[in-house]
Amino acid sequence: MKQVLVEVICLAPEDWGLCSVCQTMMTQAGIGAHSSASSLNDLPPEWKQKLDAISEWIFNTVKRYGTQVMVRVYDPRSLPGLLRSLRYGVHTYPAFIIAGRQRVLGLDVQQLDAALAVCGLQPCEVEGTP
Amino acid sequence: MNALVILLFGVVAIAAGYFVYAQIINRRVIQPDEKKATPARMFMDGVDFTPANRNVLFGYQFKSIAALGPIIGPIVAVQWGWLPALLWIIFGTFFIGWVQDYSSIILGVREEGQSFGALSYRLISPRSRSILITFIYFYLLLIMGAFGTQVGFGLLINPAVPVGVILVILVGLLAGQMTYKWKVDILITSVVTVILAFVGIWIGTTAGVKGAVTGLLGITQDLPTGPKMFLEVTQAKLIGSLLVVVICYFGSVLPIWRWAQPINYVAFWIVSIGILGGLIGLLIWRPGMGDFPAFTEFNVKGLGPLWPILFVTIACGAISGWHSLVSSSGTARQLEKETDALYVGGGAMFFEMFFAIMAFLTATVAFGSFDGYKAAGAAAAVFSKGLSIFMNQWGLDSLLGEGFGVAYGSVFLTLMALTIMYLVVRFMRVASAEALGDQVPVLRNSVIGTLLALVLTLALIWLVPFLQIWVVFGAANQLMASLALLLATLWLMSKGKNYQWTLWPFLFMFVTTIGALLYKAYEALMINLPKTADPVANKITNVGQYTVAQIIIGGVALVLVIAAFMLAWDAWQAFERFRRAKAANAETGA
Predict the structure, then answer these.
(1) Which domains does chain A have, with CATH numbers?
(2) Domain-embedded: residue B415
(3) Which residues of A fall within a CB distance of 8 Å from B53?
(4) Is residue B50 included in any domain, yes or no?
(5) Does the distance separating the beta carbons of A92 and B185 come in below 8 Å?
(6) Closest chain A residue to B49 measured between Cα atoms?
(7) How far apart are CA B383 and CA A54, in angstroms?
């Protein structure tokens, strides 16, 4: 069965801003609190909740459909994210593009599940495998 | 020689390096397996370990490796003449640069995404991890000193620049407000803020604003950097360096979404548009080298002998230890397939080489002569003026006013440096809290930790001359490269694979770096320091400052040499260990 690509276009927290210098230093030196977590906690509360919800949906989807689905996250402030926003005419985030055809704006779980079902995805019987 | 010939030479080197040499190593030695699970797929946690598309990862890798290094290094190094600098950029990348970046990614991928600290601990010795951490602290401070001097003493003393930088930062803050608070569409936010950023740079170049800033900096025709305040710091340099510190302070203590992220986003567009504009101008103009000499002299005053100093003066753009840190931790943990490693690691390094050649051309062809290059000022000023000369070929100044190009180039470079610097301060603040927080609890306070990092930075900027900081910074960087190549060699040996392609680059980099550090320590402590006995004859205006500067540079160079020898000793023992194990295995097999 062909893998279905789900492109998620949403603002993503950058670990230490757009530059990875400090994050890398932290990792290599083995010091400092988890920088990504710290960056996430810095966000305004409503953004943090939104990102937590998107993250949860992505992990649940991967768990549910295993290798039938491939999820990619794009920040619209990056060049690939910006190009996708233009290509799919997306102006509000998060936006979910399923198999390059169906567009779901906002995190509407029912609508997303329906869109995945249209692609013929079946929940896994055993976790992680189709 | 014509600039287009040099660009063509670079393209041919990239093609031969990437499509021939690198592919041979990739296929015959590493033999990546598309189906083999990478750490990103094995340990996917959505944070550190996340599989990423190879094009996205290429962008991440390039963004992380290309900062001020590939710009400043080539511009400084052409003082030996254009030929040695160009040859090192091309052959350094061809034989060593991509080798290090690619092998670091492969090492990270095949060793389950372990950090260099952990790998050094396992492959070399337990104490090598502590040496690595010590090195990283020195390295960060040298980054702050080198970039801080260029920005605070070089770029911000141009009266057309400070207001432009401040306005672009304010526009960046507006971008954060529009995105996170007003929830405006990103496309609209991008267009509005990029246009406003250009307006901000233009406002800085208007006569009224420039006049006011000139007065503030105390600049006159006779005193182009203003009156001296203390040590060798003039009024303009004091204001420039304090502006750097204030910007870094906010970048360190404010939430990422409020300061670093939106400012970096606006800066990304300013930088990208500038590079594109410069390249278009260069292609239209197609200038030659003029009287720029292919070779000047072996021993350049202020820098030192061509070997070993040239090879640490150009680090990024030929080979840089920093890349190995990015490759082994960040990139290796996000690689979706092993087969993407060469495209991401090798490809980004060859692309950076092209970036370094662009910087090289701003120094060698933009001013029409060697004297023109020397008169252009500090390395950062050479780049901003050179870039503006390229952009003026399609009429930037005639469109937006005389002097806009230089101001734009300066804001471009200032933002490139600052976006790294305030994040480095952020790291230094967290690191000091963790390393010394138990002994000195006050360091746990983020304001105190930030101030400590900034005071150390200011001391380095005010006390030590730029060229001395830059060469030691380059040497520290190359020492890291030696370690990365050493780890790759030991790893290849432990796996019974051909290791000649990493061993020889390691030996060259190690011997060269040690040579450079020993020379700099010798120069500072044995040549420069005794000059204080006769300050008048040696034109030393401030004996105290001069003495402290030489002790700092000599001391840092010696610490790095000692760290390198300790690592080399441990590595030699590890090398012998692997050899004995191999021999024992062969005997058992027999």
Answers:
(1) 4-14+45-118 (3.40.30.10)
(2) yes
(3) 72, 80
(4) yes
(5) yes
(6) A36
(7) 43
Pair B271, A58: CB distance under 8 Å:
no
User: Please, which residues have CB within 8 angstroms of residue B156's CB and are 6 or more apart in sequence?
Assistant: B162, B165, B236, B239, B240, B243, B244, B414
3-state secondary structure of A98: strand
Contacts of B435 in chain A (CB under 8 A): 31
**Chain A residues within an 8 Å CB radius of B257:** 13, 42-44, 47
Tally the domains of chain B: 1
In a domain, B231, yes or no: yes
Distance between CA B12 and CA B94 in Å, rounded?
11
Q: How far is A117 from chain B (nearest CA, A)?
A: 24
Count of pairs with CB atoms under 8 A, one residue in A, one in B: 140
CB atoms B140 and A91 under 8 Å: no
Nearest CA to CA, how far is B47 from chain A (Å)? Answer: 7
Rg, chain A, Cα only: 16
Q: Tell which residue, B317, B257, B301, B292, has the closest CA to residue B65.
A: B317
CB contact under 8 A, B56 and A47: no
Query: Which amino acid appears at position B463 of this protein?
Result: L
Contacts for B328 with CB less than 8 Å, ≥ 6 apart:
A28, B104, B105, B107, B108, B115, B116, B119, B484
Chain A residues whose beta carbon lies within 8 Å of the beta carbon of residue B255: 42-43
Question: Are the Cβ atoms of A77 and B132 closer than 8 angstroms?
Answer: no
Domain residue limits at B422: 3-287+310-589
In chain B, residues with a C-beta closer than 8 Å to the C-beta of A95 are none
How far apart CA B323 and CA B316 sit, in angstroms, is 8
* Each residue's pLDDT expressed in tens, for chain B with a length of 590 residues: 899 999 999 999 999 999 999 999 999 999 998 878 777 666 655 545 566 678 767 877 787 777 788 899 999 999 999 999 999 999 999 999 999 999 988 988 888 766 666 666 676 766 766 666 667 767 778 889 999 999 999 899 999 999 999 999 999 999 999 988 898 988 899 999 999 999 999 999 999 999 999 999 999 888 888 899 998 899 999 999 999 999 999 988 888 788 877 888 898 889 889 989 999 999 999 999 889 999 999 999 889 999 999 999 998 889 988 788 777 766 777 787 889 999 999 999 999 999 899 999 999 999 989 999 999 988 988 999 999 999 999 999 888 888 899 999 999 999 888 887 887 787 777 767 766 777 889 988 888 989 988 999 999 999 998 988 988 888 888 888 988 898 899 889 888 899 999 999 999 999 999 999 999 999 999 999 999 999 999 888 889 889 999 999 999 899 889 888 887 888 888 888 888 887 887 777 64
**Interchain pair B187, A86: CB under 8 A:** yes
Report the complex ipTM: 0.76
Contacts of residue A59 in chain B, CB cutoff 8 Å? Answer: 46
Verify whether the Cβ–Cβ distance B330 to A27 is below 8 Å. yes
Q: B303 in a domain, yes or no?
A: no
Of A11, A31, A58, the CB nearest to B431: A31
Say which of B67, B133, B187 has its CB closest to residue A91.
Answer: B187
Nearest to B17 by CA among B91, B103, B102: B91
